[in-house]
Amino acid sequence: MGHGALAAGPDLLTAAMAALVIVAIAGALYTHRFGLSHLLVFMAVGMLTGVDGPLGLPFDNHKLAVTVGNLAVALILFDGGLRTRWPEVRRGLLPAALLATLGVAATACIVAGIAHLALDVSWSEGLLLGAAVSSTDASAVFAQFTASQLKLQPRIAATIEVESAMNDPMAVVLTLGLIAWLSPFGQANEPAADGMATLLRLLAEQLGYGLLTGVGGGLLAAFWVRRLPVTDDHDGLAALLMAALGLLMFAGTTLLGGSGFLAVYAAGLLVRHHAGRVAQLALPGLNGYTWLAEAVLFLLLGLLVTPHEAWRLAGPALAVALGLMLVARPAAVLLCLAPLGFGWRQQAFVAWSGLRGAVPIVLATYPVLAGMPDGWRFFDVAFVVVLLSLLIQGPTLAPLARRLGVEHADDKDQEQSHRGTETQRE
User: Fold this and answer.
1) DSSP 17-30
2) In this structure, are residues 236 and 284 in contact, taking their beta carbons and an 8 Å threshold?
3) Eight-class DSSP state of 393
4) CA-CA distance, 112 to 192, in Å (whole number)?
5) pLDDT tens for each residue of 84-125
6) Which stretches are transmembrane (predicted)?
7) Which of 41, 110, 112, 421 is 20 to 30 A from 135, comparing alpha carbons?
């Protein structure tokens, strides 16, 4: 009987996870019609399955959620790099780099002030929360753009997509550095100058090692892949090869102390640029892996949250979420993009497209894992921030793009317009 119970455990868990994924995907197919992100459905199914849902399954394994989250985001970023053409990167690199560094820092500082007032936390703890929610999420941005079928002006599209893939390292460094600085918890244990030096050193290591390993590994991978006898997707082997390369790049860079997120995105860009034929053959199959990664990740995050505890912080969390969307993000965009000649319409859309997704929730679990007494408050607030971002910003992106006139007509529309003009002249 004992052996049967042990054998039934993994089978029951597998059946439960598979059933949850099936239900979430079925629901996502319907919500897609309303412009809602499918990530919301995965999260909702996890919440309904969790401790406050009908099934009431307890789940508090934050370490597992972080591990799965990191791997899922790495795979999504590598896939995003493989799908991004090099001209788009060059077009949006400077504004995206500013938003991914200066913009993230400015957002974190402004959110710190809002959290200080709304949650009655210290400035340093408010900055920790601001750092956790400061980065936009690549998976949320890519998924929403695909769901809304948005065709933006090239410069805006490149800026938003490249920024969402580049700004994770800054948020990770700020979060980890502040957790290390806040020991004993609630008080900085070293002078401000030393704390800033530590943050700058961590940032240099993350960005430096991440960029070096991403560029070096990407070029090496592209050189090797181009010489493989890959003539088609080989029943999905090409996609599996790309997924393995991305995860290897992420794990290796992380072991070296660099940003694995930056490394996999840079490697994906270079593989696409130098081995584009093989990369394109792998994309259809790789898309399935990224969908599975997103599904499992948001199911786990939904299971992890305790809605009745998050509800206690509904008021302060709402203030932080609205402050982030309406004050912090627009101010950071204005600071970074106004000097580059972006008009107010373009700035407004870039500000509103700063969707939050898995990364802020994953980063908000770090204080919990570090044993901070109020770590659960950061997690609950980050969850509300992400939930409201996907509910409010996601469905309104396409209508706002039309309202602001930042959509880019495709070649077919331009050709029809050109023909119409010629007919009128005749």
Assistant:
1) HHHHHHHHHHHHHH
2) no
3) I
4) 17
5) 777 777 888 899 999 998 999 999 999 999 999 999 888 888
6) 12-32, 39-58, 64-82, 94-119, 169-186, 207-225, 237-265, 286-305, 317-337, 349-369, 375-393
7) 41
